[in-house]
Write a sequence for this structure.
């Protein structure tokens, strides 16, 4: 028992204290914040409506109530790998619906993911207590802190040290994924956290992982751990 207590005390903690954790929305303009809060003006609600139709058609046989489903994802599988919300949807699409998996960033996949995430808005993601002991967490931690690219930069420099400041004319947030899928003004459309992470690699002028690279799923798990219970808020609106 003493050994278990010591292990828990020694578990890594996010750099940003829980009391200081802030939604990415707080780093956007008042106009964008107002747009996110108003479902009649939030463009992401178009995907929510489409996802609701798909869910009613394909998913209610297994999931009568979508609320809470998104809080369980991303999660660790028994083999130690990470499954994200979009990956779980495609798994159900193949194994339960008996249909072809949706292409990454496709309208149906984004719509269904957004609706499921929206249905858990205000709830927190649930992670196992020992998540920091997983290989997936360690891989993501190494990636998050690794200096890379032409700029000799890393994720931590932006989101643990420079948040609240402006870099390349952009307000830097604390870097959580609780608002995704999100509508980004720069994209003029809604996109997944996978897409946003790849954009971050591009911004660091380093090698951009393929959409199917496991490191992206690992990072989604890591960001959920960093968020420390911050409520889900999809579909967020971001710059």
């Amino acid at each position: 028992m003493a050994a278990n207590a010591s292990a828990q005390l020694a578990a890594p903690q996010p750099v940003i204290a829980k009391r200081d954790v802030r939604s990415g929305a707080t780093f956007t303009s008042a106009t964008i914040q107002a747009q996110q809060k108003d479902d009649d003006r939030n463009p992401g609600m178009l995907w929510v409506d489409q996802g609701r139709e798909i869910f009613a058609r394909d998913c209610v046989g297994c999931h009568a109530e979508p609320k809470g489903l998104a809080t369980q994802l991303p999660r660790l599988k028994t083999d130690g790998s990470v499954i994200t919300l979009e990956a779980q949807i495609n798994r159900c699409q193949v194994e339960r619906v008996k249909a072809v998996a949706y292409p990454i960033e496709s309208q149906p996949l984004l719509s269904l993911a957004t609706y499921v995430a929206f249905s858990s808005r205000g709830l927190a993601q649930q992670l196992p207590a020992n998540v920091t002991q997983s290989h997936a967490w360690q891989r993501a931690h190494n990636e998050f802190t690794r200096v890379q690219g032409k700029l000799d930069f890393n994720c931590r420099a932006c989101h643990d040290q420079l948040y609240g400041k402006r870099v390349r004319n952009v307000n830097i947030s604390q870097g959580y994924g609780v608002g995704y899928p999100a509508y980004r003004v720069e994209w003029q459309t809604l996109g997944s956290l996978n897409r946003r992470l790849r954009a971050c690699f591009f911004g660091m002028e380093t090698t951009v992982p393929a959409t199917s690279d496991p490191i992206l799923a690992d990072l989604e798990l890591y960001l959920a751990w960093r968020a420390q219970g911050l409520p889900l808020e999809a579909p967020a609106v971001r710059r």
